[in-house]
């Protein structure tokens, strides 16, 4: 800054310094928000796992879509995680088994090896 006075140079340096501090603070704030989001997701997952572990291991099935007697009686209309998961697994297996089988793909012609291509180039 050849034409600038010392006072102008100091003012510009201070402004740049403040701007860098503001940018660093914003970056830190974004990182903190991301960490808070991850923490909340982990906390919810932990609570869900605790709920699943606290539930009895086996649920007698009813005709009402896999809701156990225990779950229906103590939790009103809510479904237990275990019974919903096993019901979805059964539906997935049924869906997959009902899919038509795929035709077999024709075999690919054999490709020349790299060595044979290289020897042809040398000739």
From TrEMBL:
Q: Where is the composition biased (Low complexity)?
A: 93-117
- Which portions of the sequence form the region Disordered? 1-26, 50-123
GO MF assignments: DNA-binding transcription factor activity
Q: Where is the composition biased (Basic and acidic residues)?
A: 1-10
In which residue ranges is the amino acid composition biased (Polar residues)?
77-88
Domain spans labelled BZIP: 6-20
Task: Give the Gene3D superfamilies listed for this entry.
Answer: 1.20.5.170
Q: Which PROSITE patterns match?
A: BZIP_BASIC (PS00036)
Mind telling me what this protein is named? Answer: BZIP domain-containing protein
Which species does this protein come from? Didymella heteroderae
């Amino acid at each position: 800054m050849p034409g600038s006075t010392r006072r102008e140079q100091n003012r510009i340096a201070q402004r740049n310094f403040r701007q860098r501090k503001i940018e660093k603070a914003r970056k830190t704030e974004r990182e903190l928000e991301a960490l808070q989001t991850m923490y909340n997701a982990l906390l919810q997952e932990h609570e869900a796992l605790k709920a699943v572990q606290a539930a009895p291991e086996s649920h007698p099935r009813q005709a009402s879509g896999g809701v156990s007697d225990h779950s229906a009686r103590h939790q009103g209309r809510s479904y237990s995680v275990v019974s919903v998961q096993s019901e979805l697994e059964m539906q997935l297996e049924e869906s997959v088994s009902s899919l038509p089988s795929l035709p077999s793909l024709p075999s690919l012609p054999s490709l020349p090896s790299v060595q044979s291509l290289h020897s042809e180039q040398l000739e």
